Amino acid sequence: MLTRLFELIDKSQNIVFFGGAGVSTASGIPDFRSTDGLYHLKYAYNPETILSNTFFNHKTKEFYEFYFDKMIYLDVLPNYCHKALAYLEEKGKLKAVVTQNIDGLHQMAGSKRVYELHGSVHRNYTVKTNRFYSLDYILHHQKDGIPYSEDGELIKPDVVLYEEPLNHKTLMDSVEVIRKADLLIVGGTSLTVYPASGLINYFMGENLVIINKSRIPFYSGLQINEDINLVFKKYLEHAGVNTETI
User: Fold this and answer.
1) Going by DSSP bridges, is the β-strand pair 119-126/155-159 parallel, antiparallel, or unpaired?
2) 140 classed as catalytic
3) Which of 40, 118, 168, 238 is catalytic?
4) Long-range CB contacts for residues 192-196, cutoff 8 Å, separation at least 24
5) What 3-state class would DSSP assign to 72?
6) CA–CA separation, 80 vs 230, rounded Å?
7) 113 in any annotated domain
8) Residue 97's CATH number
9) What is the pLDDT of residues 201-228, one digit of tens each?
C-alpha cells in the first residue's frame, strides 16, 4: 500500500492534503476522541460544552482555564507528516493543506498555503473592535485568568467554537483546491466532524487516499491504517531526503 501511495505522489502534480487531529498527535498534541484524548478527561463540564460560544460568553474564566491548560502546547514541533507536506509544496507538487487543526504546526514546518478550517491559537482578536493579538500576548496579559487588551477589551481566540460557523472564505477556498486536485490525501481524521468532513465530496479526481490508524468503514478505496507520521517519514526516505536533517 505504501508503494502505491508513493507512486501516486510521484506522478501527481496537484496534490491537496486534508488533515485532522491525528496529524499532530505524534508531535504531542492529544486528539479529542482517542482513548487518551480530551473527551476522556474529567472536568466539571465536557469539552464540547466548554469549547462552545455560549460557554465562552457566560463562563469566560472557566473557558480560559480549560483553553490554556488543554488547547495550548508551546513546546511542540512539527513531525514528519508536517515536514513532508512542506517538502512537497516546495517541490511544487502539493498545492494546499486543508486542516482541522489549530496548532500552526504546518506553517512552522514551512507550508505556505494552509487553510485552517477551525482557526488558529496563534490569532486572537478583541471581541468588539476586532484588533489582533498574538498568542504570546494573551498568555502574558491576563486579569483573573482572562486576557484583555491594553484598554481593557476582552480578547477571544480565533478558533471556531461549537455553535459557530466555519469561516466562509476559508471553506470556499478549501472546496476550490480540493475540487481541482489530482490527488487528495486525507490523513489523521475519522471523517466524522461536519461540515469539514464533507469537503471530500467535492473531490473530482481519480485518486483519493486515506491514511488513518483506525479503518474508516464507509470508504472502499486505498486506505492505509498506519501511523501517518511514520508513513511520511518513509516517503521522505523514498524521496531521498535525510530525515535526520529536516
Assistant:
1) antiparallel
2) no
3) 118
4) 192/33, 193/20, 193/100, 195/166, 195/171, 196/100, 196/117, 196/118, 196/166
5) coil
6) 7
7) yes
8) 3.40.50.1220
9) 999 998 999 999 999 887 778 999 999 9
Is-contact 187 228, C-beta < 8 A? yes
Distance CA 151, CA 127 (A): 13
The single residue listed with the C-alpha cell 478549501 is 174
**DSSP H helical ranges for 94-150:** 105-109, 135-140
Q: Is the pLDDT of residue 163 over 70?
A: yes
Q: Where are the beta strands (DSSP E) in 20-164?
A: 94-99, 114-116, 119-126, 132-133, 142-143, 146-147, 155-159
Number of domains in the chain: 1
The Cα–Cα gap between 191 and 193 comes to: 6
Residue type, 128: K
3-state secondary structure 25-49: HHHCCCCCCCCCCHHHCCCCCCHHH
Is residue 125, in this structure, part of any structural domain at all?
no
What are the phi and psi torsion angles at 111 (to 5°)? -70, 135
Beta strand pairing call for 142-143 and 146-147: antiparallel
CB-count burial class (<10 Å; 0-12, 13-18, 19+) for 48:
middle
CB 71, CB 60: distance < 8 Å = no
**Those residues with Cβ within 8 angstroms of residue 226's Cβ, 6 or more apart along the chain or in another chain:** 2, 211, 213
Q: How confident is the model over 55-87, as pLDDT tens digits? A: 999 999 999 999 999 999 999 999 999 999 999
Are the beta carbons of 113 and 89 closer than 8 angstroms? yes
Establish if 44 belongs to a structural domain.
no
